[in-house]
Amino acid sequence: MTPALKISNLVKKFGGLVATNDLSLVIEDQQSVGLIGPNGAGKTTVFAQIMGEHRQTSGSIELYGHEISNDTTPERIRRGVSRTYQVPRPFTDMNVLENIRVGMMPNNIWKMITSPPRHSRETEIALSVGFAKADLTKTPGELSMGDLRKLEMARTIATGTKVMLLDEVFAGLTVAEIAQITTLIQSMRKDGMTFLIVSHDLKALEPLVDSVIAINYGRKIAEGSFSDVMNDSAVRSSYLGAA
Amino acid sequence: MNLRWTHLAMWLAFVCLMMAIPEFVSKGTLRTLIFANFLAIFAISWDVLSGRTGYISFGHPFLIGIGAYTSAILTKRFDVPIEYAIPAAVLMTMVGGIIVFLPALRIKGSYFALVTLAFMELMYQLVQVIRPDLTGGTRGMSGVQTLTRGAVNGYYMSVSLMLAIAFSMWLLMRTQLGTALSAVGMNEESVRGSGLSTTKLKLFAFLTSAFVAGLGGAFYVHYLGSIAPRALFDINFLFTIIVAALIGGASTIIGPMLGAFFLTFLLEFLRPYLPGAERYFIYGTIALLLYMYEPKGLIAIIDKYWQRTRGTFARKQEPGESL
Ligand SMILES: Nc1ncnc2c1ncn2[C@@H]1O[C@H](COP(=O)(O)OP(=O)(O)OP(=O)(O)O)[C@@H](O)[C@H]1O
Ligand SMILES: [Mg+2]
Fold this sequence. Notes:
Chain A has helices at 43-51, 73-79, 96-104, 109-114, 119-128, 145-158, 175-190, 202-205, 226-231, 233-238; strands at residues 5-14, 17-27, 32-36, 58-63, 66-67, 81-83, 163-167, 194-198, 211-216, 219-224. Chain A is an alpha/beta fold. Chain A is globular. The longest helix of chain B has 27 residues, at 27-53. The chains are: A alpha/beta (243), B mainly alpha (323).
């Protein structure tokens, strides 16, 4: 089977800084992979290149066997890949349902005008990520960090994505919120979603991934099962906090 | 589309009220109202572009000017019938809209505002030096064919145009497209990250804005019967448009309309006391205070008051039911 995501020899230079250094990785369909590394290792930059927010210096990115490097971000999203942000980026004057609505919209002006919003589907998505009914008409300013991360995931789900890139999903969350998001990701995995998950919280990451890739200075330093990577000497020396 | 009969009833009541006004007010007040109608059209046009997408245009008279000059030149210099001249003017203005759109592909914020301001200045200079035999040069043009005679007819013409534009824009902005355009103003990256092309959305907003500006500009010149570049490409005129949209309530349709009427009457009210340019200082201060008190504009103040009144009757508030 063709893998969901295949990155080959990816390089990204910011001037003299090599943020991604000859990185290759493969994620099979319906697999969940963790991407770890110390601060500034280049994790977010990999996401930005997959989504087309940054153009890579060289290398290729294939989604289900299709080279997406020349596609725009909306085109990539329609092909089935989507991401959340380390710092949530909601539409501040819109409520939860309207935020999800934007993710569900067809990328076609005429259809935006003629087709009504699908309220029941919006609600279904919102409830599925764990929003309470009372939260649906709240605006982002009234939401907790945990809710904002849920909202990011909801809008990502709304695009109909098959491969989900999660950037620091657990940052700034309470223990209860971490448990909630964990349950959510687990149930989405069961439903067949493919994941690439960045997290500094390794304990929270462990139950969510089939394998882990560790990077440092943009270069892959280890790959394998969670415990193999944790025990890798290069990872241990580079990755403070991975005691 | 989320239409409610209460909204349609309110529109109907509003239309009836506007149509009945000539029965009750003087000719002088009517002339003021005519200006308010055109200002409302220009403010709605500005808001579609800037209020929604957040690309602040400081050059709206550029678009209005294209509409006004095109129609005036076609009818006066080439004897084109007015019913062809106006659509041609609107098309030309939409071409102008594309010209304004091009810098928006690369720049944002104050840089974009400055570029649009430059467009307005450029056009002001160009109409004076290029083919003054057509544009009338510095003095502009007079004796342009008019559509109506007298204040009452002028009022009906302008109010019909304003209401038709406001109602169609209101309908359009209540669709998912309105939501998407507002989303561009809130966070462009997130709109792209939701799978929507911001280029397409912005182009649509700019073209729609230009369409309305062109229509307003063309009808305005055929109401006045003349065109004066110094008044048209004037910074006070530009600011009146922007302030009308902002203090009324940007990113709504009723807001810019409300703002336009409020401002026009404020300026008229101050005229006997302050005949000179100080008037603009006073109205600028009032606008600023109002804006600081409620950045979402008059419409939000009225909305809040309305909700509170309804609250005292202990009626249940339906979500999203605001104008
Ligand atoms: N737009 C940019 N221009 C220049 N340098 C950048 C840019 N974006 C990221 N970098 C640099 O690239 C390197 C990788 O950054 P990146 O944000 O991908 O790291 P990260 O692994 O996500 O870090 P963190 O764990 O702190 O989120 C850093 O040294 C960063 O300073
Ligand atoms: Mg990061």
